[in-house]
Design goal:
This protein has 10 helices and 10 strands.
Length: about 240
């Protein structure tokens, strides 16, 4: 009798679990991994949702406002010499604001998603320096651009292969080709302590100076799907 009761209890519990709707965290996880299986054209059709605290595309977290201290550091490095700054990925416009505040005299962004470009156009109104957007994925448009005084790279990995290899890796050579002598390249690393040695070696091939430091005190919410650490590495790569 006891064995039968235990079996019934287990069976009832399993039925309850299997019939329970996925919770919010699982929905976010599922959406994020769904996006990473899309090709680039399908990504462009996904809906973008802005709030005061985050940008979602296709239900996936693209950017959140806890990144502000990190974006400030990246922007101040990229715009350390002023001049014309290229940003790859507009997101919520957080780093764009910091680039303007840091003293860039002209701002260009590469951005493929039309809804994000709409957000850029709203932001662009009334900026104190010339700003422009180049529509497209960087792979398709970067060769048509000129030289810049600084470059800030922060894109979302559209495919699983992009995520596995780190999206900034194939951009490193292009960054070097499109920087003026003495120009600075920096990027969102996704590493809390150090960059992998092979990434450092690649950067050293294309830049004359390279240093890294940490931005501490980051406070991503527990629900954040893409970062859980209180610090991140900031690279400063000088042409």
């Amino acid at each position: 009798m006891k064995r039968r009761t235990l079996a019934q209890t287990v069976s009832k519990s399993l039925r309850a679990v299997l019939s329970t709707a996925p919770n919010t965290w699982y929905d976010q996880w599922k959406n994020r991994n769904r996006i990473l299986t899309q090709d680039r054209s399908e990504y462009l059709d996904l809906e973008a949702e802005y709030s005061d605290h985050e940008l979602l595309i296709g239900g996936s977290e693209i950017m959140q406002d806890w990144e502000r201290p990190l974006m400030r550091a990246l922007a101040e490095e990229a715009a350390s010499s002023g001049g014309h700054i290229l940003e790859v990925g507009f997101g919520m416009g957080i780093s764009a604001n910091f680039l303007i505040q840091a003293g860039c005299s002209r701002y260009t962004v590469i951005e493929p998603h039309k809804a994000v470009l709409d957000q850029f156009r709203k932001w662009a109104q009334g900026q104190p320096v010339p700003v422009e957007a180049v529509e497209g994925f960087w792979e398709d448009v970067i060769d048509g651009l000129g030289l810049f005084d600084g470059i800030l790279f922060d894109t979302y990995p559209v495919s699983s292969s992009d995520r596995e290899r780190k999206a900034y890796l194939p951009f490193i050579q292009k960054a070097s080709e499109h920087l003026k002598p003495g120009g600075v390249f920096t990027f969102y690393t996704g590493y809390a302590e150090t960059l992998p040695p092979e990434h450092m070696d690649l950067l050293k091939r294309f830049f004359s100076q390279l240093r890294t430091y940490h931005v501490d005190g980051l406070k991503p919410p527990r629900s954040c799907q893409y970062w859980h650490e209180s610090r991140m590495v900031v690279p400063v790569c000088v042409k």
